[in-house]
Amino acid sequence: MKVLGIGDNVVDKYVHLKTMYPGGNALNFSVFAKKLGANAAFMGVFGDDREAQHVESTLLELDIDISRCRRCGGENGCARVTLENGDRVFLGSNEGGVTRLNPLQLDEEDKAYIRSFAVMHTGLYSHTGHLLPELWKLGIPISFDFSDDFEDEQVERMIPYAEYAFFSCSHLSEEATQEYLRSKWKGSGLLVATRGSDRSMVYDGNTFHFHTTETVEAVDTMGAGDSYIAAFLLSYLQDRDIPKAMAEGSRFAAASCLVEGSFGFGVPYE
Question: How far apart are CA 94 and CA 41, in angstroms?
Answer without folding.
Answer: 24
